[in-house]
Amino acid sequence: MNDRFNTQMFNPRGTNVHAGEGDQYIDQNITMYTLAADFRGRRPRDVAVDELLWLKRRFVPPSGFAKADAILRSTGTVLLDGPPGSGRSAAAKMLLDGLRSGTEALHELPLQDGAPRLNPQQDVGDGDLLWLDLSDITEQLWVEVHGELSSLRHTVLRRGARLVVVLLHHRAERLRGELGEFRADIARPSALDVVRLHLRHAGLSAEEFRRPTPELDGFLAASRSMREIEEFAGFVSRARAENRQGGFPAWCALARGAMSDQSKDVAMLFGNLGKGPQRALLLATALLSGAHADQVAEAATTLLDLVEYSRDDSPLERADLATRFREIRAVTDADRNVRFKVLGFDAAVRTHFWTHMPELREHLRAWVGRTVESAGLGDRDRDLLIKRFADQCLPLGYRDSLVTLVKGLTSQPATNVRLRAASQALKHGLEHPEQGRFFRRTIYDWSQQPNLSPGFTKVLVAMCAEVMSVRHPAQALVRLHHLARRERRTTDAREALVRLGREGDTRLRRLLLERLATPAADGQIRAADVELFLEVGNPVMVSESQRPALPLIADAAVQDLLAIGWGVVFERRSHEEWAPFARSWLSAASDEVRHRDRLLDVLITPERPDEVLSRLFVIARDLPSTESGEITTPGERDHRAFTEYVLHKIDAAQGIPAA
User: Fold this and answer.
1) Closest CA relative to residue 238, chosen from 321, 325, 340
2) Closest CA relative to residue 279, chosen from 302, 304, 254, 260
3) Source organism's superkingdom (predicted)?
4) 18 φ, ψ to 5°?
5) Which of 270, 481, 655, 659 is the most interior residue, by most CB within 10 Å?
6) What residues make up the domain containing 137?
7) If pLDDT is split at 50, 70 and 90, which confidence band does 633 have?
């Protein structure tokens, strides 16, 4: 939701004892990058770039792609239709990628929580490359958005942007007349070509997968979606990486087995494991697959403690760990890392426990929160644990469990390990195709709460600045602004907001200035907004060009916003506070001949008090002069001429006739 206005590294093995009140950090300098990065150290923005490159290398153009490309290039908009599983979303991104001339990012247009569902004035910038995914929305939502598509297209056209809309299937025939010409139908590409391309980039040689393989042929015999083909290739690659025996035909068989329904096998094993300790080990192995055996065993014991399981036997009376792993069909490798014998069995076990033992879900959430703090787990194991828990929560609609986990991890003591785990959990929610909008709304609600703890604020700032800003930069800016207004003990939100404003495109800068200069719905200008305005609304930012857009100062509406903002500064700040900023502004006007009039007209208006205008003249007069001292024209960089020009502007603002 976007509210409206009126007119670096930490020690993963470190543990900590919390000996007092307040938030506690192992490393006070933990960064937004560390919280949001994956275990390889990649930031979400880098991951998005990598994912686009990954897709580009494996993309097989579907039937109808060339026609869609022609419509997009000639009209700036294409409405993409096709059956589910035909690769519509991938085609949308590749259509836009074909229009990139450099490092331009692709942005997804968000749907608002209420009417109107689209906000093109805010979300469409000059020259943007945009896609809007309507493939999974409800019928009622389709009716609302359909009525707004024409307005969206006109804004896209006016701002020189490009737009691909992925339509809700079987609704394209009901497009309004003026939209029909932008429609293009695609059909699924050759499944064999797609899977071969995936396997080639997974490192398999052509000789391996070009030989007749009944298991591969059997898999492709059914009508497979692009997602299923990608999943199959991933399992083949995983089987190969785990050095499973038998070569390519066996890997394909294992992949088919992994994608088959293993629920009956899991249920049978679960029934045979009649006691709590073995069931706990089964679940711990499923959630920590790939972790060291000692860590899995310790996690199983933690789960037993959380469910208050009592056992009377001595450790010496129990079977050894190797035997217990064999009983749950798990094996250890040379490094004693644990995995199940059957590929994909871990996911089936997780689903069984989550689906058929609902009374265990709250215990499981608490167990995840405790297990991530285990000193023996590395970043990879922690991240995978969070991901696997999120995979259970998100598709099945148990998103509140993930929200509760985030809140628990950011409560005291807020160690780096806990904050990073909370960030990873929230990141999975934000990036989920169906639940992402819910988590963006949740962060919006959180951002308006007063007295957030520094740790929780740091997590929210990281999610806005590092995750949301990749695909939904305007929504990220709105939430950062709310956080910056309310933070008291830190400056994380403020710094991230300023950075996003300075590094963002013209659209984001305009949005930020509008929020800082215009009263909110309650008619108030916050004190924090005045400080932020002075930091963000600097002459360099508003004067520099960002092709294809013109500088912000060239926009009359932006000039009005800047003038309003400076009026608030003059009213609420003392001369000593605003003078340094005014000096920078006047200095830029002296140097920047092209925008001199616009820059001066922001500061010097008829509404300014005489005292303010007098002080502005003194500041202009006392600016360092040029060495030559030669009086020339107002358009040149001569100090005396510039001073006279400022005086002329002040006279005009005060209604004094020119001499």
Assistant:
1) 340
2) 304
3) Bacteria
4) -90, 110
5) 481
6) 61-185
7) very low
